[in-house]
Amino acid sequence: MKKLASKHKLNFVDSELEILKEKNLYREMRYGISKGSKITINNSQLLNLCSNDYLGIPVTKIQIKQLQSSSRLVSGNDESYKKLEDVLAKHKSQQSSLIYPTGYMANLGAISAIAKKGDLILSDELNHASIIESCKLSDAKVSIYKHNDMTDMNKKLKQKGRNKFIITEGIFSMDGDLSSLKQITEISEKSDAITIVDDAHGDFVIGNDGKGTPEYFNVSKKVDLYVSSLSKGLGSFGGYIASQSNVVDLCINKSKSFIYTSALPSFLVEYSFKRFESDRERQKKKLEKNTKQIIKGLKEIGYEINSHSQIIPIIIGNEKTAMDFGKFLFDNGVYAQPIRFPTVPKNKARLRISVTAWLSGREIEKTLNIFEKAYSKFHS
Ligand SMILES: Cc1ncc(COP(=O)(O)O)c(C=O)c1O
């Protein structure tokens, strides 16, 4: 193939990439084929410890119909949406729900629709990039409180704002710890703040009937707006919000990431519905058992583990060591991604293990053996 000449005016791109490489922050994509607990990359079959398909619901068959190829407000609003939105609203004990193409777009669309200039948003310092971006889009004043720190939150809530919002994740995506939702909802009630919970990682996974982190803390009804993903616990694709009907109506009318984009293909909506209706409880129990086994095993090896959820970070610190750690695991048949800045703060690089119900007891034992070898190599 003829090599295209590089354009001089784009030379700065090379410099930017070079800087990322020098700082060990360069990211590369790998092509992989996932099947159950395994992933095949470059002809190597590895145990997959970085999938967000936490429940590992067995493959669901759906029929692919003609795509609607339009925004939902035009002709893309297939009937399957209503069926799924009704069950999701009930699942969250809310009046209504609205599906977006992704969880990322749900945050962008909903938060920027409900908060505006003159409002005050309190956001946890470890909140996901989609929350950070959506806060910026809203034009509200954004005040970042220390991670899960209620004293700092209370202090920052004293600032002026027409409407005040507190936004937190349910299970934090890179640390696996749970947000202090009992205290947060109490503070919200006292100060009349609106509570928004992004439960992308807790939804379908914890709480009675997989209703998520607020249900786990028994505060479901006190959350004003839920944001979640269908691409993690449920192992499908898409995002959604759930709230009272007028909030959903406002989002239909104001969310740019809802109005100005094509609808999620209806076969994915049906796929989510089928998976929602499957035996999630059995998978949830399996996930809980696997999580306990991995946490116990890692602690016995000597790793410092503070997570109780299916997201288990092993904090390494230095970016280069985290990359080397990941490579060692890869070479020994385990796929777990090193996570670096800007996803986590600088010098807080980590291996993020995500447990799924796909893993068998034997596969977990094998994984732990490899982590034991890694411990001797990287912790001496
Ligand atoms: C906390 C949180 N919110 C939202 C998202 C975005 O979800 P989706 O993958 O459906 O876009 C993610 C995904 O990584 C997440 O971790």
Automatic annotation (TrEMBL):
Q: What are the alphabetically sorted keywords of the record?
A: Pyridoxal phosphate, Transferase
Transferase: present as a keyword of the record? yes
Instruction: Fetch the SUPFAM superfamilies from UniProt.
Output: PLP-dependent transferases
Which residues belong to any copy of the Aminotransferase class I/classII large domain?
45-368
Enumerate the InterPro entries for this protein.
Aminotransferase_I/II_large (IPR004839), AON_synthase_class-II (IPR050087), PyrdxlP-dep_Trfase (IPR015424), PyrdxlP-dep_Trfase_major (IPR015421), PyrdxlP-dep_Trfase_small (IPR015422)
Asked if the keyword Ligase belongs to this entry, the reply reads no
The lineage's top-level taxon is Archaea
The similarity comment for this entry is: Belongs to the class-II pyridoxal-phosphate-dependent aminotransferase family. BioF subfamily.
User: What is the protein name stated in its UniProt record?
Assistant: 8-amino-7-oxononanoate synthase
